[in-house]
Specification:
- The longest helix has 15 residues, at about 80-95.
- The protein has a 7-stranded mixed β-sheet with strand order 1-2-3-4-5-7-6, with helices on both faces.
- Strand 2 and strand 3 (about 50-60) form a beta hairpin.
- It is built from 4 helices and 7 strands, in the order E-H-H-E-E-E-H-E-H-E-E.
- The chain is an alpha+beta fold.
- It has a domain at about 5-105: Aminopeptidase, CATH 3.40.630.30.
Length: about 140
């Protein structure tokens, strides 16, 4: 079976929200996920295989900057290259839209995500103290395209 990537639709939001809940202590709500479909600066990506939602991401592109707003992979699909596929698709889209760099925030405790970002050329350039609702700090990371 082949993994495919496409844009989200409102019909995908419930499955995406479930992966959010499984992946994050402060997940995006279904309304927040639906909002990503309403604004043209948001570009959504959904990876699926055999009808199963394996992962998703959201990229915001404004002029020369893109922001990786969200990315997650379903627990049952981790370690299968889903994150890699989503990262590559987002970078392609950002370049196609004229972005020169991609920015993101990541929990300082999220070692697997930090490792993925570093693998794709992101580097830490700062820290936001108490960025998350639970008080955890966030690293600021960037990649030049």
């Amino acid at each position: 079976m082949t993994m495919t990537v496409r844009a989200w639709t409102k019909e995908d939001v419930a499955a995406i929200a479930e992966i959010e809940r499984q992946s994050f202590s402060d997940p995006w709500t279904e309304d927040m996920l639906k909002d990503a479909l309403r604004f043209p600066v948001y570009h959504t990506f959904l990876a699926e295989e055999g009808g199963q939602v394996c992962g998703y991401s959201c990229l915001i592109v404004l002029f020369e900057d893109a922001e990786l707003a969200n990315i997650a992979v379903a627990p049952t699909c981790r370690g299968k290259g889903v994150g890699k596929l989503l990262m590559e698709k987002m970078h392609e889209k950002a370049k196609a839209l004229g972005a020169e760099r991609v920015l993101l925030e990541v929990r300082v405790s999220n070692e697997s995500a930090i490792g993925l970002y570093e693998k794709y050329g992101y580097s830490r350039y700062g820290k936001r103290e108490k960025y998350y609702a639970d008080g955890e700090d966030a690293y600021l990371m960037a990649k030049t395209l």
